[in-house]
Amino acid sequence: MNQITKKLIEKFSPIWTNKQVWEFEQLNENLRFDVLYVEPKHYSIESWNSKLAYPDSDIRDLTVRTFDYLSDGNELWIANKGQNKLDEPYVSYLMAVLVDTMIDEEICLNFRIENNFLVIPTTHPKTLQYIRIDAK
Q: Which of 9, 41, 88, 103 is most exposed by smallest CB count within 10 Å?
């Protein structure tokens, strides 16, 4: 886990439990996000027109795709549906859901906020480290 991720976790601590995620989903039905996979340092607004952009997505439906794209060296960028930014109340939710859905893969996730998007950076596939993520 890198320092940027540690600071983001501190800001949004405590990390949500599965019960809190479930409660949030009950209060916010039909949670949809715009999702983009992009090579590190190659993000631009035009990236949203690429084949790796998935507007109006359910974050839980992207688990396999996310693991594959992260393994291929891409970053995951997430915004509110149709808004080109992510509202802060969704950051804790998304971090908890992504950690929970990726925990079986034992992949270390890092997070950052960039240009008002939640970004999950990756490690180059040759150095991708698999470790257990322990939730609080």
A: 41
